Amino acid sequence: MDDGQLLRYSRHILLDEIGIEGQQALLQAHVLIVGAGGLGSPAALYLGSAGVGQLTVVDPDTVELSNLQRQIAHTQNRVGQAKVDSLAQAVAAINPEVRVHAHQSRADAAWLDRAVSEADVVLDCTDNYATRQAINRACVRHRKPLVSGAAIRMDAQVSVYDARQSGSACYACVFPPEEVATEVSCATMGVFAPLVGIVGSLQAAEAIKLITGMGSSLVGRLWMLDGRDMSTSHIQLSANPHCPVCGQSHAG
Predict the structure, then answer these.
(1) What is the rounded CA–CA span in Å between residue 175 and residue 237?
(2) Which of 58, 50, 14, 11 is nearest to 32 (CA)?
(3) How many CB atoms lie within 10 A of CB 231?
(4) In angstroms, rounded to a whole number, what is the distance separating the alpha carbons of residues 107 and 234?
(5) Which helix (H) or strand (E) holds 194?
(6) CATH number, domain at 103?
(7) Structurally, how many domains does the chain consist of?
(8) Is the pLDDT confidence value at 248 over 70?
(9) CB–CB of 153/190 below 8 Å?
(10) CA-CA-CA-CA torsion sign (196, 90, 162, 208)
(11) In 3-state terms, what secondary structure has residue 252?
């Protein structure tokens, strides 16, 4: 690190849990963020400000006026612009040293197979059940940790699924892919604006912890928040030996 980086990241370096070694790990890390909306915005901004060396962001959508109530990386003058390009500009305004790879496309299975294999940590910041399942399958296949977040109305949840850890559940263990999910979206159900900021920030925190090796992650726990009274709760998670995605890997 040069003098500028030592100053920029000094508040992390002062932490015993991170220090020089942890900050260096962040500078060398590559995080994949699927979704550049309410969750992806704060996640990318915090990861970028923390000095994660490379961020790959994928999202097919453009910025709309209704996004600005909660998607804090986007601005009024970028309405109509690709969300991934808007997000890249927002990260660059905070930390121009971060390399942001912006992809305006849908994260299909083939694309995810390539992108997940190149990342150190993957963040699921989507609101589409099929895409969540595809992200999980790629993470299990390539043994990459997945930080999953969701927020709708006044409710939120975050967990970490890490195929590198024996006995760790994958997303499909908890939310079986054969179940027909009722798709919900902010456009039809609404969402409390600060809630997505809380979840996206937690996803960034879990990613930083995984990269630096600090603390213990949310592996094996589903963290839930009720925004009505700010009460939190946890559900313990365990691998499903019959899971169609990871069951064979756990059995072996």
Answers:
(1) 11
(2) 58
(3) 9
(4) 30
(5) helix 193-212
(6) 3.40.50.720
(7) 1
(8) no
(9) yes
(10) negative
(11) coil
Count of residues making up the chain: 252
Report d(CA 148, CA 160) in Å as an integer: 6
Contact at 8 Å (CB) between 163 and 144? Answer: yes
DSSP letters along 133-156, please? HHHHHHHHHHT--EEEEEEEBTEE
Phi and psi at 31, nearest 5°, equal -115, 135
User: Which residue bears the tokens 């009720």?
Assistant: 226
- Chain-centre distance for alpha carbon 29: 14
State pLDDT tens for residues 64-86: 999 999 999 999 999 999 999 99
What are the tokens at 25?
């790990």
Pair of tokens at residue 77: 């003058």
| 54: β partners | 30, 99
Q: What is the pLDDT of residues 140-179, one digit of tens each?
A: 999 999 999 999 999 999 999 999 998 899 999 999 988 7
Please indicate, yes or no, whether the overall pTM of this predicted structure exceeds 0.90.
yes
Q: Which domain holds residue 199?
A: 3-251
Are 67 and 44 in contact, with CB atoms under 8 Å apart? no
Helix axes 129-142, 109-118, angle to 10 degrees: 40
Distance CA 9, CA 97 (A): 12
Q: What is the DSSP letter of 62?
A: B
Sign of CA dihedral 207, 100, 2, 93: negative
Q: How far apart are CA 10 and CA 145, in angstroms?
A: 27
Handedness of CA 98, 104, 109, 114 (dihedral sign): negative
d(CA 238, CA 252): 16
Report how far residue 114's alpha carbon sits from residue 122's, in angstroms, rounded to the nearest whole number.
Answer: 12
Q: Which residues lie below 8 Å from residue 188, measured CB to CB, with a gap of 6+? A: none
Nearest CA among 139, 63, 47, 75 for reference residue 104: 63
